[in-house]
Specification:
- The structure is a single chain.
- By secondary structure, the chain is α/β, with parallel strands linked by helices.
- The strands form 3 sheets. It has a 7-stranded mixed beta sheet with strand order 2-8-7-6-5-3-4, with helices on both faces. It has a 4-stranded antiparallel beta sheet with strand order 9-10-13-12. A two-stranded parallel ribbon has the order 1-11.
- Helix 4 packs across helix 11, helix 5 runs parallel beside helix 6 and helix 12 crosses helix 14.
- The longest helix has 20 residues.
- The termini are far apart.
Length: 382
């Protein structure tokens, strides 16, 4: 048994049996028994001793989750705040951003909801140059950023609508040389690709490649930048003294889900980040090979893109939404319909996305390819 197969078996045995074929980890992965049990045990403990007493008892587990996230982002000294998700993390950051002039540099393939949050906070867009596949054109970007300096650079390291991996380490180095803050949306990247680039800010979610609960996110900020933020819900004079990070995290929280996320991060580290990333890249390569000749569809990513995500564009009029629904209803195969709203500045039409996790097999991907042919034919005839 290969190392990848062994990891796949461990990942599979740690989870409830899947009801069908789950190829939607880029949306929401399957939690392990341990993650489910940790969240349930905390909820039970809340009922036994009270929610606030239970939260105090959970502090070491939550701190361990903060430390794990900071390490995975290459930001060991960062202050880490739990949020309800990635959008909430970005909203909290921008709500306290220390600048009068509001301008952000980002890619044309930026996630649509991120664009909405940026606009809501009054940030103007400066679009960075890209290559034909949507990947950042680093040299051209360097000239653009020197000529017209934004308040910060925002990079979604792996987009929501395709599996192209952006050159995060090189951009982090460039931003450091130019003295520009780099904010990284790692929602789709964390756990799938190496995010240890040492950005100024990194935020992410629990539910994707780390396989934690829904409704939890995390925001890591370098201490010097954290001290410059002005939280919208700043602590009043009469309130107990609170750090900026504590003010950002102020409010009601699903502590049980945060405990589950911390456990999921610990499990991920125990598997070995490099081993998990290698397995996911291997599955992406297998997927693209298997799907390359499926009639009616074109694979977006290069065959050896180091990502588990494979995106399919219809070339003969197939309807990705109808195909996605047919696959789920008729074959119990879960995939993603990627509408134009995911990247409104770049996408010209909807796509179909698959995102297998470590326990997916080559046989599963062959099964999907056969089902995709059937779904394409069935929906075309409908």
């Amino acid at each position: 048994m290969s190392a990848g197969d062994a990891l796949a078996e461990r990942w599979r045995q740690a989870r409830p049996p899947v009801a069908g074929l789950h190829l939607d980890s880029a949306a929401c992965s399957r939690q392990s028994f341990s993650v489910i049990d940790a969240a349930a045990q905390h909820a039970r403990y809340e009922a036994e001793v009270g929610g606030y007493v239970a939260a105090e008892a959970a502090a070491p587990a939550l701190d361990a989750g903060r430390a794990a996230f900071a390490a995975l982002c290459g930001m060991p000294d960062a202050e880490v705040v739990y949020t309800t998700g990635s959008l909430n993390a970005l909203d909290l950051l921008l709500g306290g951003w220390p600048a009068d002039r509001r301008k952000v540099a980002c890619l044309p393939g930026e996630y649509g909801p991120n664009l909405a949050v940026l606009a809501a906070h009054g940030f103007d867009r400066q679009l960075l140059p890209t290559l034909g596949d949507g990947r950042l054109a680093l040299d051209d970007a360097a000239f653009a950023l020197e000529a017209d300096r934004p308040d910060f650079v925002h990079l979604t390291a792996v987009a929501s609508h395709c599996g192209v991996v952006q050159p995060l380490p090189m951009l982090a180095r460039l931003c450091g040389e130019l003295g520009l803050p780099l904010v990284v949306d790692a929602a789709q990247a964390l756990g799938q690709v190496d995010c240890a680039a040492g950005a100024d800010v990194t935020y992410s979610t629990s539910r994707k490649w780390i396989a934690g609960p829904r409704g939890v996110g995390v925001l890591a900020v370098r201490p010097e930048l954290m001290q410059r933020l002005s939280p919208r819900l700043a602590a009043p004079e009469w309130a107990p003294a609170a750090t900026v990070a504590q003010q950002l995290e102020f409010g009601e929280a699903n502590v049980a889900a945060r405990v589950g996320f911390s456990v999921a991060l610990g499990e991920y580290l125990a598997y070995g980040p490099e081993a998990v990333r290698a397995r996911l890249a291997e599955l992406g390569s297998i997927s693209r090979s298997v799907l390359a000749d499926v009639p009616g569809w074109s694979v977006i990513e290069e065959a050896e893109e180091p990502s588990a995500i494979t995106t399919l564009a219809p070339v003969d009029g197939a309807d990705p939404q109808a195909v996605r629904d047919w696959l789920l209803a008729e074959r119990r195969i879960l995939t993603t319909y990627a509408g134009v709203q995911r990247a409104p500045l770049e996408l010209t039409g909807p796509l179909l996305r698959i995102s297998p996790h470590a326990d997916t097999t080559a046989a599963d991907l062959e099964t999907f390819a056969e089902a995709l042919i059937a779904a394409t034919a069935a929906t075309a005839a409908a």
